[in-house]
Amino acid sequence: MTRLFLVFCLLLSSTMARADERIFYQPLNVDASVSQAQWQRIWQDTVKHGVQTVIVQWTAYGDSDFGGTNGWLARSLQQAHAQGLKLVLGLRMDPAYYQRINELDSAGLAAYWQAQLGQSLVQQQRLRQDWKLPVSGWYLPMELDDFHFLAVDRRQSLQRQLKDFAGKLDAPLHVSTFNVGKLAPRVYGQWLGGLADIGVQIWWQDGAGTGRLPPLVRNGYASALPCPIGIVREAFRQVSAEGQPFLAEPATPETASAGCHPTAVFSLRYRPWGKVILDNQRKNQVSFRQ
Fold first, then answer.
1. Could you tell me which of 92, 190, 262, 263 has the fewest CB atoms within 10 Å of its CB?
2. Which tens digits make up the pLDDT trace of 125-147?
3. Is residue 133 part of a domain?
4. Where are the alpha helices (DSSP H) in the chain?
């Protein structure tokens, strides 16, 4: 009986430790209003909740660099590092990304991606030279989905570009993906598995927060994912309508077993100890696209 109890405790502690082991943080300009003292407390509480790695979604969003080398974001992340947190730093995000990939044909999409990857490489070099933060990985904020990459030629072109881009970095490349039900689960899993095979850490968003697909369908996609694919538990529930600026309320992320998959939670803004960030956003009435 004692032995069984110990095994149970070990399994339980392992499950709890993995729950928020990695957490996403999506910077907004309005977050500059959060004081550095508040950031210190947020990062301290983040560590207390078992988080080991923070994945910062971007460090440049269009023309905004969030204060640059000595700005509020850089100083906040320095505090995060001081608390022992590992950092995966996001690169550059084009605010018009979703609009652009909607408009482009296959050749145009490949050219657009190449241009954006070039700008992200410049941002990576700038971060290395100026921010001087220890980096565990680089996150490319241009999300993948099975609507815009439904065609095989688009997926093949993307894989070649990501392989080339990852080869120019000095730490692992991370990319996230979501699905809208256009590719069959098996084909979708094979696509993501192929990206993982070239050394890219892929993160699949579980879709619980956006609710684009019914739970049974989402579970089917999750079951088809190869083990290296990470699962992002969405800790929010979207309250805005399709096509409107993104608004969401905090929610408990799903706790179903991730099996062999790495896990992360999206996002810090919606976790109880990150409430000050969300409250500040609401006070300033800022919405954004998730």
1. 190
2. 999 999 989 999 999 999 999 99
3. yes
4. 2-19, 36-48, 72-82, 97-103, 106-126, 152-166, 185-197, 215-223, 275-283
Q: Which residues pair with 155 in a beta bridge?
A: none
Percent of the chain exceeding pLDDT 70 equals 91
Q: Could you tell me if residue 214 is inside a domain?
A: yes
Paired sense of beta strands 236-238 and 248-250, if any: antiparallel
For the cut 70, the answer to whether the pLDDT of residue 271 exceeds it is: yes
Amino acid at 118: G
Q: What is the mean pLDDT of residues 26-53?
A: 98
Give the residue numbers spanning the domain of 202. Answer: 23-283
The sign of the torsion formed by the CA atoms of 190, 90, 264, 228 equals positive
3-state secondary structure 44-67: HHHHHCCCCEEEECCCEECCECCC
- 10 falls within a domain: no
pLDDT at 15 (0 to 100) = 42
Looking at residue 3, its amino acid is: R
